[in-house]
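MODEL INPUT / OUTPUT PAIR
PAIR INDEX: 1
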Amino acid sequence: MRDNDLADVFSEYGPVVSAKIVIDNKTRRSKGFGFVELSDEGNEDAAIAGLDGKETQGRQLRVSKAMGGKK
């Protein structure tokens, strides 16, 4: 999955400000997680409920709020 794929998955819950898959600097491969910021924070709970456990590109998503994020 690439950044734009991640943005596409979340876009049904509102405009995506940013979507970033975390890449290992040594191997240049995905570390298996990423971060998404939606323009409307009110849509976060709907995105979590709708996407957590959903399968995309043959992998099951685990969606939750980032620890230590904005308050």
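PAIR INDEX: 2
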Amino acid sequence: MTDIVADSGPLIALFDGSDGYHDRAVAFLKGLTGRLITNLPVVTEVVYMLDFSPQAQRDFLYWAEQALTLDTATPGDLPRIRALMHKYADLPADFADASLVALCERLRTTQVASVDSDFTIYRTASRQVFRNLFFAE
């Protein structure tokens, strides 16, 4: 059973049938055997991106309560998030992405689910590469 840290892209795709990654997101969730972990910055981003449909926003939040493990320690990660945003300013790394890198470091995992190619560039403080399971075959 693998813990996977989830970025907003797959979660948005799951609740937006017109998203190009929708079918992949559905298949990914069906095959999931571990916990899907995320944080409030990602939940906020998902709800914001689903603003085309208040029903989709509510459906996501209901599903999130049941299906996600929600990490609540982001405030303690703020110094690291700020450092990551500075380090990756040329991308630029946004708050949600930097918060996930910090979360992964704290949980000692490199397993992520993201549609964001920046996770091929990001590294942990110990220089570990992330493994994006959303695109794993």
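PAIR 2 NOTE: The chain has a mean pLDDT of 96.
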